[in-house]
Design a protein that fits this description.
The complex is a heterodimer of chains A (369) and B (362). By secondary structure, chain A is mostly helical. Chain A has a domain of 226 residues. Chain A has 15 helices and no strands. In chain A, helix 5 packs antiparallel against helix 6 and helix 6 runs antiparallel to helix 11. Chain B has 362 residues and is an alpha/beta fold. Chain B folds into 2 domains: 108 residues, 3-Layer(aba) Sandwich (Rossmann fold), CATH 3.40.50.2300; 180 residues, Rossmann fold (3-Layer(aba) Sandwich), CATH 3.40.50. Chain B is built from 11 helices and 14 strands. The longest helix of chain B is centred in the N-terminal third of the chain and has 27 residues. The termini of chain B are far apart. About 4% of the residues of chain B have low confidence. The chains are: A mainly alpha (369), B alpha/beta (362). At the A-B interface, helix 4, helix 11 and helix 13 of A face strand 2, helix 3 and helix 4 of B.
Chain lengths: 369, 362
């Protein structure tokens, strides 16, 4: 009897992508705890830091401090947007490893518009638009190369990541107006009207970028699941040749998906410089949001809601990262947990093997009866 | 009976003294945190030096880490402000930051937490606050000394018309102080010496710095001063190759004593001397000010007078006459008879620095 009750659970677990993602995250944390115990640290600090990032109640003193919640939500903006970027391409069967470069170019575009154009109210909208367009171009070029000339999108995007990274200081130092004072590592100031407004929790970095991100999540879901375009994209992802045979323009699908994917990452770049960094800093090393977007999309299984939740998780870990270091927990633990979550995601394909085996066993049983 | 009473009294007093001692020890244990960029305290440079100062202050070989002092690293360009706020809301007595990358974040957060003490090293242009000390170094003084030492070494080696080279990291007001000090030091011995310079425009590109050093040595440069962070290792590597090939050329290290980086044979190093910039002095100074309750916000200048800058004499091949000349120049700087310029503009106005160098002023 009990066995019969258990079986549906396993089947449900194997079928549900959400459940496997949750299991993978739990496994990652368990491994983190084991690691902490092995090096003789108390894992409690890890969870007090995470608790503080989620509910805002400080571990020491015990007071409520919602700034923590604000920072967590603010950090999750670029994670979710880069996750959408990766996920959008993945649904079309592309591996967009270039979210980092598209993010950097979006950031640069926002930076240029915020520095070069005289301040006017609502300037941030123009900055965001520029970031979307430049990000879309940076991604779209790869899409066209892939669709028309069969250039591997992985190689092309890796190269474009570095071009973007080195282009940033090159443009900032040689083409943008320089500040009159304290010039090292920055350009002239960003116009104050270009900054994304802090709202709700004023003491934190939480800004209107959060709403832009929410809109992006809805747009992602709508395009993918509710439009003809989304259907043709998904069809191309399942089987390019079959899609073409049934009249879907796969060249267009691939180019367009890379462009939209790049626009998401470009938006992330604009949100970071205008909402989180908030001054005219010249980017000199990769922020890794683009690369972490791959992990976010994998954990979220490239679904809008999944990416949203996974991005929140990575935002929590980022805010907890500095708090837990202050509690004596080594910073590497967070990186290890994040890395292990990505590795354990591979269990998904392992689980599908189990599923196949169980299906075969069931058939065999029925046949032998 | 009396004896017993006396013994009791002594016992009580000793307890009281011990208890007080214990209490004092408790009070002295202030807590400090070092905030760094993603490289953390293993960068063999700036962050490492600041961390060394913390370890020196506590003197416990790192056993107090996680309790009394800790290092918190950033992950990307946008988490400096949240990290500072997180640290300010935990119970640290002192928050330590280094370098201009933290300037904007410290400016913003120090104003929000007036009861939290902050320091920043290598920055002097932030708003004056009671809770913030800004440490600035007069690197031109130490650079002057290594310039003098290198020129005097060339003289002792009997080199006719020696050329001197400078390799900088990213051009800016800070590195200009190094270059101008070095040039003025060299020119105090050889007023007509030819100076060549090169800016890598990167703190972490030793390969490019090595190529530049090779072309400098090839055109007859005797000594190169590398003030380029991690890129400077390329200059030292090239100097090693040149010396192994039998050429009499040198490299000069920066910030900490880089003698060990230049060792190419037993007891022989291609690093003639190093310009020392004691970043650890700033962290020690700040920690002392907090623990002894003599904290006062403002700008603190680290120079020759308080041991903030200097030069290294580790290399046994550094001629006695060169060391003597550098020591004499140090005395001159201390006495005020030698004034070293900080800007390219000032040095050019005096006719010491040639036109066309890569140095820029803010």
């Amino acid at each position: 009897m009990s066995k019969k009750e258990k079986q549906p659970f396993i089947d449900w677990f194997l079928d549900s992508n959400g459940a496997t993602s949750v299991a993978v995250v739990i496994l990652g944390f368990l491994a983190g705890i084991v690691l902490l115990l092995c090096i003789g640290k108390n894992p409690v600090g890890l969870f007090t830091a995470i608790k503080q990032s989620i509910i805002g109640k400080a571990a020491k003193g015990g007071g409520w401090n919602f700034r923590n919640v604000g920072e967590t939500l603010a950090f999750s903006i670029p994670y979710i947007l880069c996750g959408l970027s990766m996920g959008f391409a993945a649904r079309v069967g592309l591996f967009n490893i270039g979210a980092e470069g598209q993010y950097t170019m979006g950031m640069l575009a926002a930076h240029i518009v915020a520095v070069c154009i005289p301040a006017f109210p609502g300037q941030w909208m123009l900055c965001v638009l520029a970031a979307l367009v430049v990000g879309a171009i940076w991604g779209g070029v790869v899409g066209i190369l892939k669709a028309k000339y069969k250039v591997s999108e992985v190689v092309a995007t890796i190269m474009l990541n570095y071009i973007a990274l080195y282009l940033y200081p090159l443009v900032c130092l040689n083409m943008l107006p320089q500040g009159t004072f304290n010039k090292t590592g920055r350009t002239a100031d960003l116009a104050s009207t270009a900054l994304l407004d802090n709202f709700l929790i004023k003491s934190s970095n939480l800004n209107i970028g959060f709403f832009l991100m929410l809109i992006a999540v809805v747009v992602y879901w709508f395009i993918m699941e509710k439009t003809r375009l989304g259907f043709s994209l998904r069809a191309t992802g399942f089987n390019k040749d079959a899609a073409r045979c049934s009249g879907i323009n796969d060249t267009k699908a691939i180019s367009l998906s890379m462009a939209i994917s790049g626009a998401f990452a470009g938006l992330a770049g604009a949100c970071v410089i205008l909402g989180l960094v908030r001054y005219s800093k010249i980017l000199t090393s990769q922020d890794n949001y683009g690369f972490m977007g791959i992990a976010v999309a994998l954990v979220g299984n490239s679904r809008a809601l999944g990416i949203f939740l996974a991005g929140l998780l990575f935002g929590i870990l980022k805010q907890a990262y500095s708090i837990m270091q202050g509690m004596g927990i080594p910073k590497e633990v967070v990186t290890v947990i994040e890395g292990l979550i990505v590795i354990f995601i591979a269990l998904r394909s392992g689980l599908s093997l189990v599923k196949d085996y169980r299906a075969k066993a069931k058939v065999r049983k029925e046949v032998s009866k | 009976m009396k004896k017993a009473l006396l013994a009791l009294l002594v016992l009580c007093m000793s307890f009281a003294v011990f208890a007080q001692g214990a209490q004092e020890a408790q009070q002295e244990q202030i807590k400090a945190v070092l905030l760094t960029d993603a490289t953390g305290i293993d960068d063999k440079s700036f962050n490492a030096a600041a961390w060394r100062g913390i370890l020196d202050f506590y003197g416990d070989n790192g056993t107090g880490r996680g309790v009394l002092y800790e290092n918190i690293t950033a992950q990307s360009s946008d988490d400096y402000v949240p990290n500072l706020k997180n640290a300010a809301e935990a119970d640290w007595d002192l928050i330590i930051t280094t370098g201009f990358t933290w300037a904007d974040a410290v400016e913003q957060v120090a104003g929000l937490y007036p009861d939290q003490k902050f320091i920043i090293v290598d920055v002097d242009y932030l708003t004056q606050r009671d809770n913030l000390i800004q440490y600035i170094y007069e690197e031109e003084q130490g650079s002057y000394l290594v310039g003098v030492a290198a020129a005097e070494q060339a003289k002792a080696d009997g080199i006719a018309n020696p050329k001197f080279g400078f390799v900088g990291g990213v051009a800016g007001a800070t590195i200009t102080k190094f270059e101008i000090g070095y040039i003025e030091g060299v020119k105090s011995i050889y007023p007509e010496a030819e100076i060549v310079d090169f800016y890598v425009n990167d703190w972490g590109n030793p390969a490019l710095a090595k190529t530049a050093a090779k072309s400098m040595y090839d055109q007859g440069v005797y000594c190169i001063f590398a003030a380029a962070g991690g890129s400077g290792l390329g200059v030292i590597a090239q100097a090693k190759e040149e010396r192994l090939a039998g050429k009499n050329v040198w490299a000069i290290g920066v910030d900490s004593d880089q003698y060990a980086d230049g060792i190419y044979a037993d007891g022989k190093s291609a690093v003639l001397t190093s310009m020392l910039k004691m970043v650890e002095n700033s962290t020690i100074d700040a920690l002392k000010k907090v623990s002894e309750n003599i904290w006062k916000g403002g700008v603190v200048t680290q120079n020759m007078a308080n041991g903030g800058v200097g030069y290294a004499k580790t290399n046994s091949e550094l001629k006695a006459s060169a060391a003597a000349a550098a020591d004499k120049a140090a005395e001159g700087i201390l006495a005020g008879t030698i004034v070293v310029d900080k800007t390219y503009k000032a040095a050019q106005a005096k006719g010491i620095a040639p036109a066309g160098l890569g140095a820029i002023d803010d």
